[in-house]
Design goal:
The structure is a homodimer.
Chain A lengths: L7 E4 L4 H12 L5 E5 L3 H14 L5 E5 L2 H5 L4 E4 L11 H22 L5 E4 L4 H12 L6 E3 L3 H14 L6 E2 L2 E3 L7 E3 L4 E2 L2 E2 H5 L11 H12 L1 H9 L5 H16 L6 E5 L8 E10 L2 E5 L5 H23 L9 H4 L4
Parallel strand pairs in A: 1-2, 1-4, 2-3, 4-5, 5-6
Antiparallel strand pairs in A: 7-10, 8-9, 10-11, 12-13, 13-14
Helix pairs in contact in A: 1-10, 4-5, 6-8
């Protein structure tokens, strides 16, 4: 009835993303054995009660404020448990604070859930918090990832809206590199009703409409600011889409099928090294594998720029002594 | 891939229940052809964007602030679109205000969606708003219902917690009559791990625990105040469980299978007449049918009391001239 009966720990389960994720795990028939963790006991109980009142058959849902209880025996760990940015905090404060949370999560995973098969980090800046979790967890690189799909689904949405076609008639949308405003929105293999975006930009019409370079730049910008737009419209940051796509990533880990880019660790030696960022990924028996995405020179330039941004954030966290120097990463995690 | 491709109109789709419901309709594979309606344009756009960013394959989701567009061609209409109680409003203000919304919804259904096959009303007081919608819609009584499951799933939750058993090891939980603090929590066929509640109250142990009359009274009270407890814990009224159970009701309408009591119209002539309230219901080709639930004298007494409360609320709405006098109902809806 459910895709897996292995234990799923949902961290930050009192929050909007976490509580929605528990519902989505059950509603999609993905997992029934769920432990909801949050340090905020009152809200956690309320979120758990809501899930109970849904009455999902076969559900085995517990909740706890004890991280050891949450993680022990967990095969899958999905964490939206970062702190939101508060008044008076700088971006750097948020970066450092959330990376400290990610560090502790990594250490907790090492202690309580060393056999975890997949961890997805959702709290921002996800590229850096995901990387931090990976390093301290000691897990294999293919077992720790970050949610990176939303930029791509936002691109799909914008193109579908522009051309007035169904959303899934827009295919091959990919955004790579860092999640956030520095992301690289690839033309890649994007097609609308089967017509490649390159051809569209060269003048091909779809559904009676054409798209010029200026339109494309507008769409790319709308994708980059898609998250901020949700805050403006709803008065809160997105929670339904991060929740659902994280559940889809878990399904991908189990079934091997997942449609969107994921955050992938890049180790020493390549053009892009010692970061986690959205890449051309696929799920296999050993978790997530992938490579630098292919793209036009323009796409590659955007990716290089996005990588530089992610590397800079990483270096700030190393300078803040939350992450160790790169040379010591393998001491913390021999799997790297 | 989806249980139905008929049009589902979700009314109040910018709200917490409505936006969650759209996600749940898609996540459970229930419906893909959804129109999101809300008069609050900005929040509606934000909610729709979130759904788009989920990237559900096959989804055909639109949104509108035009009720005619939302309802035209809709086979199913799910409405959480009432007004919440605001500071300074009395319970009567809320009752009258939401019944006026329900009246307009009924009239809009009559005008734009006379072929609707199922309408579920979720906004409070649901027994009365559901009744009001039915009368003005002109639809068959079996085609309009109210969400009534949560009281029962709350009973299931409380008993599972008390005995320390899995939630679905508690079976046959039913609460009937009015939704809210006057509900009748039936012992009915409730059993825990197969042991009937009557036997438990006579001393039978389950999972090493016994439950006495005082414990049972405490549990009944906790069920009656289960909704208020959510508000206390989460700082907002429940939205995940009403959303999910409404989707389950729609599945019930389509497949014939649904596990919980639903709001049912009782016409002239019976012991319980001219109300909508939770009853012993089942789905058939002609929608919802049902009867007065069987129960112990004590259960029946509680139901009679709950009915009297619902009838009183109905009479207040008639007095406020939002509902016509009972004698005129058949003029408004010949199907009654």
């Amino acid at each position: 009835m459910y895709l897996t009966d292995k234990k799923v720990a949902v961290m930050g389960a009192a929050g909007a993303i976490g509580s929605n994720m528990v519902q989505d795990l059950l509603a999609t028939g993905t997992a029934n054995n769920i432990c909801m963790y949050d340090p905020f006991a009152v809200g956690l109980e309320g979120a758990a009660e809501e899930i109970y009142h849904c009455g999902f058959p076969g559900a085995r849902v517990t909740y706890t404020t004890d991280v050891a209880e949450a993680l022990t025996g967990a095969s899958y760990i999905l964490s939206s448990g970062g702190a939101p940015r508060k008044d008076g905090m700088t971006r750097e404060d948020l970066l450092k604070g959330n990376c400290e949370i990610a560090k502790q999560l990594g250490l907790d995973i090492k202690q309580y859930a060393p056999d975890a098969e997949f961890v997805v980090i959702i709290f921002n800046p996800a590229d850096i918090t995901g990387l931090t979790t990976l390093i301290y967890s000691g897990l294999k690189p293919g077992y720790v990832s970050t949610l990176a799909a939303l930029d791509s689904t936002r691109l799909q949405t914008r193109l579908a809206t522009f051309f007035g076609v169904a959303q899934d008639e827009v295919t091959g949308c990919t955004t790579y590199g860092g999640h956030g405003e520095s992301m690289a929105v690839f033309k890649g293999n994007t097609a609308v009703q089967g017509v490649k975006l390159d051809d569209i930009l060269a003048g091909a019409a779809v559904n009676g409409k054409t798209l010029n370079a200026e339109d494309w730049a507008t769409i790319q910008e709308a994708v980059r600011t898609g998250g901020a737009k949700i805050i403006k419209l709803r008065g809160r940051s997105s929670y339904q889409s991060p929740s659902h796509q994280t559940v889809e990533m878990l399904r991908g880990r189990i079934t091997g099928e997942y449609a969107w880019p994921c955050g992938l660790y890049f180790g020493d030696g390549g053009k892009y090294a010692n970061v986690m960022m959205a890449a051309d990924t696929k799920f296999g028996p050993d978790g997530l594998t992938g490579s630098i995405p292919a793209g036009s020179p323009e796409d590659q330039e955007a990716l290089a720029k996005s990588y530089a941004h992610v590397a800079k954030l990483r270096d700030e966290v190393i300078d803040a002594k939350v992450l160790p120097p790169i040379s010591e990463w393998k001491t913390y995690n021999p799997n790297l």
